[in-house]
Amino acid sequence: MFPLLGNGIFLAEGNIHAQQRKALAPGFSISSIKALSPIFWRKALLLSRLWQFELKKEDVQSKSIEILDWLSRATLDIIGEAGFGADFDSLHHPDTPIRQAYQRFFIFDNWSRLFHGLHSQTRLARFLPMKANYELMASRRRVLNLASEIICDKQSKRLSQTLSREKNIIALIVRDNSTSNGKLSGNMTFDTMRDQVMTFLGAGHDTTAAGIGWTLHLLSKYPSTQDKLRREIQEYMPFLFSPDNREDESWLSKIDEDRLPYLNNVCRESLRYIPPVPFTLQHSTAGDQLCGYRVPAGTEVTICSNTINRVPEYWGTRADEFDPDRWDHLPETHTASAYMTFLHGPRGCIGKKFAETEMKTLLCCLLSVYIFEIDDSVDDPEKWKMWKITLRPRDGITLKGHASGVSAFRMAYTSLRFLSRELEALVLNFYRFPLPLANLL
Ligand code: HEM
């Protein structure tokens, strides 16, 4: 993935990293993200409309959908417009070149896994005459060219004084870091800005898509949680549930996704339970002590968010269960640093607020139109978690989406199915105990 991420803030070190972080921070402030929220909503509404077309095309009320691919396209289009003012429109055009550049990376066949394994072990792997290497370099060229075009465009708009009309992260950063004659100034050279665009593109779409995908999977597994969340959304945003009003955008500026406490709990719990970035590697630049152990300079430290997010000492004895309500009664031993999904401190995720707002918007929009249910004909995606920077299921996430016109009946049906599954598990558990006893007699 690193060739696609560019040499931006993600790979910068020391003072250079601190300076870049300071220059980029205004673009990711809470007020900047709030201003971008209408873009999130428009793309979310488009996604739900396109799913409705899919149902209409086949004249059905429900359909199995591989949601992860759709979500990756939606989040790519969102980072394109909110991040750089570019409309990739991969929701309408799945084969758009920029989409293909990333798609190749997430193929999990045996060759791709071997190739990825080699790359993680040695930098020399990139020189091997393999088809996968040529494809990776072709993808890199595509992303690099696009990022260069974006920065050229912003610079020329800065010159013609039209950049101030643009509301996107990179326009704001170019404005803050360029002189009146359009030249980029200080630490933000043309190459640095181009690499930041590559970093935001790479770090900012598949992570959130995986987060939303896993959340919808968990909501399908726990229908009562899904119902409770849908009720909260309906209470706060009834217009979303009315086919006549949901497309009327006059409500866009009035809503605040952060005012839904249960939605907040569901998102945090899903990101805790299955963190899209399950671990990260850091290189210690100076010697230090960690829990009484000496860590010399130059040590490679692996930070396992997926483990820390489930340590019973911080999360309680039921740390291994998905339970959004836990956030209302965390154990006294809990500390904010135990939630490692976005890391913390100077290397923590700069796009956290962006990702949270995007995730909440897409969930509200989709849950107001569809009821999601596990598709028993495919393997449980939790069995096939695969890691390539983000944690994704090998075959994507396929769920049954029901248009919510059949809601009352469908909700009752899914709740009954859930109860019968729970009952079955209970009965199986009960019979597990008497068996050894029977053997003793
Ligand atoms: C659910 C979604 C996301 C998750 C779980 C996530 C997680 C993370 C994590 C764990 C890191 C630290 C990586 C490391 O140091 O090795 C990180 C860094 C970063 N993330 Fe995110 N991220 C998400 C979404 C986003 C979005 C939407 C953007 C941009 C729009 C973004 C931009 C970045 C950048 C630029 C860094 C590097 C920060 C630095 O080194 O100072 N992320 N992210």
From TrEMBL:
Pfam families: p450
Domain of life: Eukaryota
Gene3D superfamilies given in the database record: Cytochrome P450
Cross-referenced InterPro entries: Cyt_P450, Cyt_P450_E_grp-I, Cyt_P450_sf, Cytochrome_P450_monoxygenase
Keyword Aminoacyl-tRNA synthetase: no
A GO term for molecular function: monooxygenase activity
Coiled coil (UniProt feature): none
Protein keywords: Heme, Iron, Metal-binding
Co-factor(s): heme
Chain positions recorded as heme binding sites: 349
Family indicated by similarity: Belongs to the cytochrome P450 family.
Protein name listed in UniProt: Cytochrome P450
